[in-house]
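Entry 14. Structure prediction run on the chain below.
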Amino acid sequence: MKVILTGATGFVGGEVLKQCVHDPNIDCIIVLSRRQLPTAATQSDKIIVIIRNDWLNYDDMVMQQLAGASGCFWTLGGKAEDFSSVAEASTVGIDYTLAAANAFATKLASHGVERGKFGFIYCSGMFAEMDQGKSLWFERENRKIKAGRSTSKRPYSVRPGGVLPKVPGSMEAVVGKIVPSVRVDKLATVMIDIYMLGADERVLENSQIKRRARKIEKRRKKDYPGFKGNDVSTEI
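Output returned:
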């Protein structure tokens, strides 16, 4: 299987990249990036990095490089405060995503991907607000940008709350008990599982992500008796 990944230099995207590299069902990962990846992240022969300066247009040359891909993990973006302005955050969060989703839906089919079978798994966030004109009490810009991206043409969206490291520190563990959260490795595992098997829901909230992660772990322990996964009863 050949997949596309954005946001590979980020927290979630980096974990998705690692798991794709170790997944025997995935033999090629096309990383679309705004900058070069660290050397350690590109050691696998599976990885092909394409540096993108123009994220709003996908010409035939680019689409030929993506030919044969059957899915995309879209983790590009961030919080509004991470950008120089709300306008820049909106461009990256909404315009870039819509441009890619539309290009993949219309152009990849002509390169051999069966129409309707391309999986677009988008990492959004909890409390995303679809009504762009609604007055919000907190995280106004972030919630609208994340929801705005969710209007793109793709099958699935995951909406985690807080995303924690694989081994949370003491403070993070406490926060994880108070705020709806999921570990980054669990989130990445669920995103890849959705790409492989699909999902009944088009949008998975934090609780659904964690529920699916537990099911995946139970399935792996059943299929592979020697599997040393995390204790599902104590999972954050």
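The longest helix spans residues 86-107.
Filed with the rest of this week's runs.
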